[in-house]
């Protein structure tokens, strides 16, 4: 029997993510930014961002994230934070910490910035600096102290993969020492540069299982002192994630050049004309554009999603992953065990398993570090 059709009313965007710039001082090989972002040199002006923020707020957006690239590379970040707060947004800075001086932090605190998420690449200086291809470990440690000093809740994000999964215990110890309140251990999801480096970054099942058991043991030991979120890599699951809480559901991302996106990776999908805030009102983008309506509801779904009881819960998984792995964004995300292409995902995991069991593991090809736009 077919699962009932759903086409819920379009709710307002709750989360506006302002990707202020693709420029970044770091070169992480797991960055989710588009791999061709080095060619992207046009960024919205301060006034254009103000306008986007005003429009999104009028539509009902409540949370405003500033990310990139590295948002601190924008000299007008403080102005944007100030305007965001004035409009009544809950504001959130997602940063590598590079460029966060005490005076900038003090100013943003004064303007009411609500929340900062700081990223580290590892608990060791060597690996942190190798992965970011910069000497930034000590600088980040200083920024972590500053964030505490300015009485922000300390939120630390570490992306996990083959190179640092075995360090999870040390990463947790580092976070405790820094006084972190919320530690996000996010296994790499394979988009952007991470997809380019998938074979090099893919962990073994044993690594993931071991890290998860370490996290559980630490949780039991430290109790509420620090909350730890451990996100299992998609490829190791049998059911897909409800990516972005559904396409055009709650998330409105604006790329540095003003392109409006229902998710970070959407630009990789061919045949969709993503609207730009330079020439289209945010309301029209959200409610009426073909791009934002393309994968709402279930009319676009094929089997097995169309007849699946979970379709209103997981929305068939991730459109960008379906496209990257099957060549058709309307297919079920092959992470799902019901997908006819699930075997491809298992083969990728098995391949990592085999290669990494070799006595001295060498990536089949060197890691490709993220290239940055010059400006
Ligand atoms: Fe685009 Fe999942 S990242 S839908």
TrEMBL record:
GO BP of this protein: pyrroloquinoline quinone biosynthetic process
A Pfam family this chain is assigned to: SPASM
Keyword list, A-Z: 4Fe-4S, Iron, Iron-sulfur, Metal-binding, Oxidoreductase, PQQ biosynthesis, S-adenosyl-L-methionine
PROSITE patterns, sorted: RADICAL_SAM
KW NADP (keyword) present: no
Gene Ontology terms for molecular function: 4 iron, 4 sulfur cluster binding; cyclase activity; iron ion binding; oxidoreductase activity; S-adenosyl-L-methionine binding
Listed cofactors: [4Fe-4S] cluster
Domain Radical SAM core: 10-225
Enzyme Commission number(s): 1.21.98.4
UniProt pathway annotation: Cofactor biosynthesis; pyrroloquinoline quinone biosynthesis
Signal sequence, renumbered to the chain: none
Gene3D superfamilies registered for this protein in UniProt: Aldolase class I (3.20.20.70)
Top-level taxon of the source organism: Bacteria
Cofactor-binding details, from the entry: Binds 1 [4Fe-4S] cluster. The cluster is coordinated with 3 cysteines and an exchangeable S-adenosyl-L-methionine.
Residue positions binding [4Fe-4S] cluster: 24, 28, 31
Catalyzed chemical reaction(s): [PQQ precursor protein] + S-adenosyl-L-methionine = E-Y cross-linked-[PQQ precursor protein] + 5'-deoxyadenosine + L-methionine + H(+)
InterPro entries referenced in this protein's UniProt entry, alphabetically: 4Fe4S-binding_SPASM_dom (IPR023885), Aldolase_TIM (IPR013785), Elp3/MiaA/NifB-like_rSAM (IPR006638), PQQ_synth_PqqE_bac (IPR011843), PqqE-like (IPR017200), Radical_SAM_PqqE_MftC-like (IPR050377), rSAM (IPR007197), rSAM_sf (IPR058240)
Its job: Catalyzes the cross-linking of a glutamate residue and a tyrosine residue in the PqqA protein as part of the biosynthesis of pyrroloquinoline quinone (PQQ).
Family recorded in the similarity comment: Belongs to the radical SAM superfamily. PqqE family.
PANTHER family: PQQA PEPTIDE CYCLASE, RADICAL SAM DOMAIN PROTEIN
Subunit and partners: Interacts with PqqD. The interaction is necessary for activity of PqqE.
This protein's name: PqqA peptide cyclase
